[in-house]
Amino acid sequence: MPRFKPYNHDQNAMVVINYQDQLQPGTFEHAVHYLIEHKLDLSVFHPKYRNDATGRLAYDPAILLKIILFAYSKGITSSREMQWCCETNIIFKALSCDTVPHFTTLASFVSRHADEIEALFEQVLLVCHEQGLLGNELFAIDGCKMSFNASKEWSGTFKESGEKREKLRGLIRHHLLAHYALDEAETEADLDRDIRRTKTILSLDAAMNKVDRFLKTHSPRMGRGRRIKEVKSNLTDNESAKMTTSKGTIQGYNGVATVDKKHQIVIDAQAFGEGQEHHTLQPVLEMVEARFKKLGIAENIYQKGTVVTADTGFANDKFIGNKVDQPQAGPKGESHG
């Protein structure tokens, strides 16, 4: 019989690793590291920090950005999973300099710095322009529906929410009457039943108060379709919406991205709380035009022969063609500047 060298997985080893060597030129992680360290101005994040004289040291925004951006490139959006990667993955360890930010730190950084991250996106776009990565000849627009952490059960029109409130009130009255009837509980079983009923009443009361507060502090949400009508609000996240997808109905957002053809650089990305896309064309095109003008890339990008493509779901007769300086409808869902 042949003989082989023995091996054993159950052993420890001390390995010397230089984290800089893990970030090899030509890789995405090296590009992220280089851009953040040498090209981007991160001072936009500084005003949010208040630990100049007192308080504990904070994680440098450069470290958090490297972790988050590299994680996004791998399809990782969970802050808990990002923390786990910093503990176990050598590339994440190299980008984070062997630090392990808590998942709440990562999540808070993203949620608290929306405006600053948008400003950073524009810096990246300017770097792409300086490197000749933008062709500015063809922009492609498309969207996808993304589920969000908001319960579909809390969606409905104001009429439906009012009906739910009355139904909850009726259930509370029903359980209260049964609760009063058991006030003279004599057996242990009766007492356990009484406790469960009390918890049910408290839960129903909290739900009814949630609906009541929403109805008193919000107005009906109107859609932007061809026929203006009320759309369902959501008590958990009123900016999200119910959307029909190939995988069923979700509660979430319609993410719309604009991509430059030359090197597939994303030049704009927005989220809209409606499943229909026809009303999103105008704000997307206006945002791209304003951003390119602000960055000095083009005074009016659509007057330079730029072609914009989008599928028929983005067609909007009220917008396309109503201004001379806006794209005109073309064949096969294209718009031409």
Task: Briefly say what this structure is.
With 337 residues, the protein is of the alpha+beta class. Helix content is 42%, strand content 14%.
In round numbers, the mean pLDDT is 81
Uncertain runs are 322-337
Sequence of secondary-structure elements: HHHHHHHEEHHEEEEHEEE
The overall strand count is 9
Give the percentage of residues in beta strands.
5-15%
Overall morphology: extended
Q: Distance between the terminal alpha carbons, to the nearest Å? A: 75 Å
Percent of residues in helices? 40-55%
Rg for CA atoms: 27 Å
State the helix count. 10
Structural class: alpha+beta
Can you characterise this structure?
- This protein has helices at 19-22, 28-39, 61-73, 79-88, 90-95, 103-112, 114-130, 158-181, 188-217, 281-294; strands spanning 138-147, 155-156, 233-234, 241-245, 248-260, 265-272, 307-309, 328-329, 334-336.
- With 337 residues, the protein is of the alpha+beta class.
- Strand 4 (241-245) and strand 5 (248-260) form a beta hairpin.
- Helix 8 (158-181) runs antiparallel to helix 9.
- It is extended, with a radius of gyration of 27 Å.
- Residues 322-337 have low confidence and may be disordered.
Topology diagram in text:
Layout: H1 19-22, H2 28-39, H3 61-73, H4 79-88, H5 90-95, H6 103-112, H7 114-130, E1 138-147, E2 155-156, H8 158-181, H9 188-217, E3 233-234, E4 241-245, E5 248-260, E6 265-272, H10 281-294, E7 307-309, E8 328-329, E9 334-336
Parallel strand pairs: 1-7
Antiparallel strand pairs: 1-5, 2-3, 4-5, 5-6, 7-9, 8-9
Helix pairs in contact: 2-3, 4-6, 8-9
